[in-house]
Amino acid sequence: MSKQFDVVVIGGGPGGYIAAIRAAQLGFNTACIDEWKNDKGGPAPGGTCTNVGCIPSKALLQSSEHFEHAGHGFADHGIAMNDLKIDIAKMVGRKDTVVKQNNDGILYLFKKNKVTFFHGRGSFVAAKDGGYELKVAGAAEETITAKHVIVATGSNARQLPGAPFDETNILSNDGALRIPAVPKKLGVIGSGVIGLEMGSVWRRLGADVTILEALPAFLGAADESVAKEAAKVFKKQGLNIELGVKISSVENGKDGVAVKYTDAKGAEQTLAVDKLIVSIGRVANTIGLNPEAVGLKLDERGAIVVDDECKTNLPNVWAVGDVVRGPMLAHKAEEEGVAVAERIAGQHGHVNFNTIPWVIYTSPEIAWVGRTEQQLKADGVAYKAGQFPFLANGRARALGDTTGFVKFLADAKTDEILGVHIIGPMASELISEAVVAMEFKASAEDIARICHAHPSLSEATKEAALAVDKRTLNF
């Protein structure tokens, strides 16, 4: 007789493992199926985020930033560095250790919350007795049944047509995290989050990096003023970013990769690189899920079709995270996972897409929440803008990092905060205040009146709020 569960989650990434834990907290007999393996074949829950995405990339970004500071920034602090070297193997080893710590942490949380874990690939078999029969294809295949199923199978890197990933020369985010030595010349196709972050890592370590972007505008999703500042800073750092290009072909050879493309002026160009990172987006992962066995509906892009509450077309089957509509962000997946578990329990789980923060962990960091200035203009919304530079912030001066600014956008009549955009030191942390403020429908005046510690980077947030009414105190 197969094991029976109230809730089974397929996928152990940020959306999946969080959904499983919350369901267990709510009293459901819960299981989670995940097939990620570590280098020894053991379980490695956490999905793309933990294994080849958010966590390892931040580890490498931190290591490479330390290296760049040692080589270029420490002298200003009176610290002399001689014969500076980087041990790539040790750096990658540290990254692997950080990943394993997170894998083990999730397994511990499963035990703590009494979530049954199955190591293998989960798939639908059939609808059965008001629930669903599922197969776990692992070391030992088994069948389980569930009253509710939450699909959280994530996404895969999109391949460039005619240039499949070999993870040696043509790299996805996975291979980009495992380059064994600093390439002399590195190409990146796509100037999104992954492209900029991975390009920054290897540029800091000594690679000559060229980023090719098909779109004519840089960071089109960000506020225009932030994107303009970022482009200027990245160019000064040494990132060569070409916009409006059209890739003609990619030739993968023994000595590297040749990318032929047409530039923005219509001229034919060839970029010869040692390694090529392709970061042109991600596609929903339903490989091996066997949705047709139960009639689970997918859209034209292969994503699972859900409504606003993450319900699929099938009773008691839900889906969250990258495998459904909406931004492919780990924290969005987590919030959906919690909301679905609570909805199964008859509660009113809530996810506000308007207050989901976006972060790019380059240096300077870039973060925003809410609408951009160009979106407000396009929507015909009357607004006020306030901006404050880190150049005028005492803590930023002490840190030696005064790049960028904080920008507030508020409704012209009500003063409600409509968007906050930050480029500068620790933007990923500073944006949380804006998220809280917007979730509670605060006004710019509310932030302007709150006491912020001095000296702190957060004072730039207060000053930007003051700037909405043209009354900054320190600029």
From TrEMBL:
The active site is at residue 454. It holds the Pfam family Pyr_redox_dim. Its cofactor is FAD. It is found in: Cytoplasm. The keyword Cytoplasm applies. Residues 356-465 form the Pyridine nucleotide-disulphide oxidoreductase dimerisation domain. Residues 5-337 form the FAD/NAD(P)-binding domain. The keyword Cytoplasm applies. NAD(+) binds at residues 190-197, 213, 281. Its EC number is 1.8.1.4. Its main location: cytoplasm. GO terms for cellular component: cytoplasm. InterPro entries: Class-I_Pyr_Nuc-Dis_Oxidored (IPR050151), FAD/NAD-bd_sf (IPR036188), FAD/NAD-binding_dom (IPR023753), FAD/NAD-linked_Rdtase_dimer_sf (IPR016156), Lipoamide_DH (IPR006258), Pyr_nuc-diS_OxRdtase (IPR001100), Pyr_nucl-diS_OxRdtase_dimer (IPR004099). Disulfide bonds join 49-54. One of its GO terms (biological process) is 2-oxoglutarate metabolic process. SUPFAM superfamilies: FAD/NAD(P)-binding domain (SSF51905), FAD/NAD-linked reductases, dimerisation (C-terminal) domain (SSF55424). Binds 1 FAD per subunit. One of its GO terms (molecular function) is dihydrolipoyl dehydrogenase (NADH) activity. It catalyses: N(6)-[(R)-dihydrolipoyl]-L-lysyl-[protein] + NAD(+) = N(6)-[(R)-lipoyl]-L-lysyl-[protein] + NADH + H(+). FAD binds at residues 58, 122, 153-155, 322, 328-331. Keywords: Cytoplasm, FAD, Flavoprotein, NAD, Nucleotide-binding, Oxidoreductase, Redox-active center. Belongs to the class-I pyridine nucleotide-disulfide oxidoreductase family. The active site is a redox-active disulfide bond. This is Dihydrolipoyl dehydrogenase. It comes from Roseateles aquatilis. The gene is lpdA.
